[in-house]
């Protein structure tokens, strides 16, 4: 029997991924690729909804792909590709936009938040149709599951609605995907503001641990992480958000349980604990960083791998798109 299919992606919105992306997404993707026929994209078309310098975007796209591979996504096992390399994404997004309600799209909270933040005149239409492009990503591949963070759940629900609507109106063309929402315990917070999610586009970089930071810089950021005045290494998300966040990172990277780590550091100060965590982080990310930099040293080879994977993606995507065009009554080109 063929494996069920999985789809996920990240925007190339920074030079480096941050460890929240690694713990919350890449580690799970790496495991899931064993049991699923997995598709992972670098969603560069989505990234165009934010202002970008063209040469920087190109570089960020390569860097994001290199970090997927360095973190253990295997391009021979999973289909790892760049969204814009597969033309069908933009084409299906147009088709789906014709069955998406204006009101329905207006209710997407990510759009409401961003358009409120920037103001209507600085908000582009691409930001409005962002979820429709995301639906196209997912539906082109007859996806069964979509692992995403909580903030993307509404977009996957819209994807389901669009798939069901199309299937009912024109005949079955799409599998209806299920969102798999990442556990809250896998959420990593900013080291300086431990109540805000760590994010690639954070305003200050002091609280962000970058995958490609050099080890000394990561260690320094951990030593400077905000804690509290109690002095005991104990998990309490409400009262001790800083220490709790560090414990979650420690546990995620070592595969150990939080109580065991609390025991190990009982009666010792935050300095010791942070030093221990810095060692764990350097040990985990040293090889990942090394591998990513090696891949980036040979961009031609990386581009070849991405092209071969895009060709694989094309086959599946084109078949879905042809069926959709047919069902909607678009005249076939002979
Ligand atoms: P941006 O700032 O550009 O929105 P981001 O760093 O917040 O980027 P996304 O590109 O939105 O990250 O998310 C990519 C993946 O990483 C998603 O699956 C998301 O759930 C996961 N992720 C992002 N930040 C964190 C975090 N702090 N903790 C756990 N998972 C995270
Ligand atoms: N919007 C998502 C990125 C994304 C995605 C997708 C995730 C684009 N297309 C398809 C899963 C499936 C984000 O910001 N994390």
TrEMBL record:
InterPro entries: aa-tRNA-synth_Ic (IPR002305), Rossmann-like_a/b/a_fold (IPR014729), Trp-tRNA-ligase (IPR002306), Trp-tRNA-ligase_bac-type (IPR024109), Trp-tRNA_synthetase (IPR050203). L-tryptophan binds at residue 137. Keywords: Aminoacyl-tRNA synthetase, ATP-binding, Cytoplasm, Ligase, Nucleotide-binding, Protein biosynthesis. ATP binds at residues 11-13, 20-21, 149-151, 188, 197-201. Pfam families: tRNA-synt_1b (PF00579). GO terms for cellular component: cytosol. It is found in: Cytoplasm. The keyword Nucleotide-binding applies. Its EC number is 6.1.1.2. It catalyses: tRNA(Trp) + L-tryptophan + ATP = L-tryptophyl-tRNA(Trp) + AMP + diphosphate + H(+). PANTHER family: TRYPTOPHAN--TRNA LIGASE, MITOCHONDRIAL. Homodimer. This is Tryptophan--tRNA ligase. It comes from Microbacterium saccharophilum.
